Amino acid sequence: YPWQHTRETQLSEFNLTDIEAILGAYTKVLFVRDPFQRLISTFMQGMGSSPSFSSFVQDVLDSGQHNASVAWKPLVNLCHPCLIQYDYVVMFGFLRQELGHLLQRAGLPVDSLLPKFTDTQVRWTYSWLSEQMFSELSLQQKKQLSHFYRWDLAAFPFSSSLLSE
């Protein structure tokens, strides 16, 4: 459908029939990441103006889901996995394994296109960092975050997420 839209055209600008046809014509890949790790990454990149992680989390909670930044908005509100049938869901932390499978299924040469990932190191680092940052939060903030991301936690297998406890 390249003649019908430009790079800036939003899918919501089409009617339902066109949306179904467009989505049916493409392979749909969704990249997902544990919501708590997304918060940590956003905070570490300085995208929040808060001096501490705890106050940043409070700002996120105070913003609410409808006014949330794309950086921390729940994935189900951004990507609509209940409405769009994604062909692949790729989990952060397993990129090498999952992207290799995706490239192979697409008939592309896996070895020449995949960068070197250090998934094991990334998972260990985020696990350690998550525990440190999580310990800074009050019990109420932890409960509120679990509620804020409840649909993400239900939709995706974030089994090791600190928010799912």
From TrEMBL:
Chief localization: Golgi
Subcellular location: Golgi apparatus membrane
Enzyme Commission numbers on file: 2.8.2.-
Bilayer topology: Single-pass type II membrane protein
GO-annotated biological processes: carbohydrate biosynthetic process; dermatan sulfate proteoglycan metabolic process
EC top class, as a word: transferase
Keywords from the named record: Carbohydrate metabolism, Glycoprotein, Golgi apparatus, Membrane, Signal-anchor, Transferase, Transmembrane, Transmembrane helix
GO cellular component terms given for this protein: Golgi membrane
Pfam families: Sulfotransfer_2 (PF03567)
One MF term in the entry's GO annotations: sulfotransferase activity
UniProt family annotation: Belongs to the sulfotransferase 2 family.
Name of the protein in question: Carbohydrate sulfotransferase
Organism ancestry: Eukaryota, Metazoa, Chordata, Craniata, Vertebrata
